Amino acid sequence: MARRRRPPRAGALSDLPPLKILSKIVALQAAYYVIAFAMILFTTLVAGKQFSLDLVLSWRSLRGDTTVGWTLGLCWMLDSFVEVILLLLLVSRSKLVPDFALTIHFIHLTVTSFYTRGLPTNLLWWALQACSAALMVSLGIWACQWRELRPMNFGKAKETPALPPEHADHGEEREGPFSFGFGRGRRGKGRDGGEYEMVRMKEEDENV
User: Fold this and answer.
1) Mean pLDDT, range 146-165, rounded to an integer
2) What pLDDT sits at residue 172?
3) Distance CA 111, CA 201 (A)
């Protein structure tokens, strides 16, 4: 007897078409580098340093014994914080956030390795990637769950008009075709202008 395949978990990547997944990965990865490029360029211009592509793509620039290295680490952490907003807008599912966040960092590792022609050997670079991935996953999941648990409004409910002061007392009856009071039944007005009262029949009368 053939074994039954376990159904995929709700919100898995299999729920999305491959082209849509690829487009979101490309958009997130491009935004990841654009934001980092803008931050690093701004900090180098403010500090009066010379900008180079090694500051963005080379793991050798991230050193713990220089001010430039710590500034680059701060820029990458801020980049991960901004990327959380894009995960909230593009992904919107808390169960998909770890997949996309780890994919972004894996692609960054691949690009850095190809650019420097070698795997990173700097422990500070690996620690930065771990902190960046943890920040992106934790804040991304929290933001998406907060959005998923928000109450949904299907339209503005009609407000019940307040009763005028003369009908606020419980002892008075409401005017209209039918009025409810503390009596035995329900009162109303007939077509001829006369009043009548609807009273429940007793059980003794029903048995007769």
Assistant:
1) 62
2) 45
3) 87
User: Could you tell me which residues are beta bridge partners of residue 180?
Assistant: 186
d(CA 54, CA 91): 30
| Whole-number pLDDT of residue 154 | 60
For 78-131, the pLDDT digits (tens) are 999 999 999 999 988 889 999 999 999 999 999 999 999 999 999 999 999 999
* Nearest residue to 21 (alpha-carbon basis) of 13, 29, 30, 12: 13
Torsion of CA 50, 54, 55, 58, to 10 degrees: -160
Amino acid at site 66: T
DSSP of 64-129, one letter per residue?
TTSHHHHHHHHHHHHHHHHHHHHHHHHT--GGGHHHHHHHHHHHHHHHHHHHHTS----HHHHHHH
Q: How far apart are CA 159 and CA 163, in angstroms?
A: 12
pTM: 0.65
| 188: three-class secondary structure by DSSP | strand
Q: Which amino acid is at 131?
A: C
Specify the 3-state DSSP secondary structure of 134: helix
Q: Is the dihedral of CA 46, 49, 50, 56 positive or negative?
A: negative
Task: Name the 3-class secondary structure at 205.
Answer: helix
Secondary structure (DSSP) of 11-67: T-GGGS-HHHHHHHHHHHHHHHHHHHHHHHHHHHHHHTPPP-THHHH-GGG--TTSH
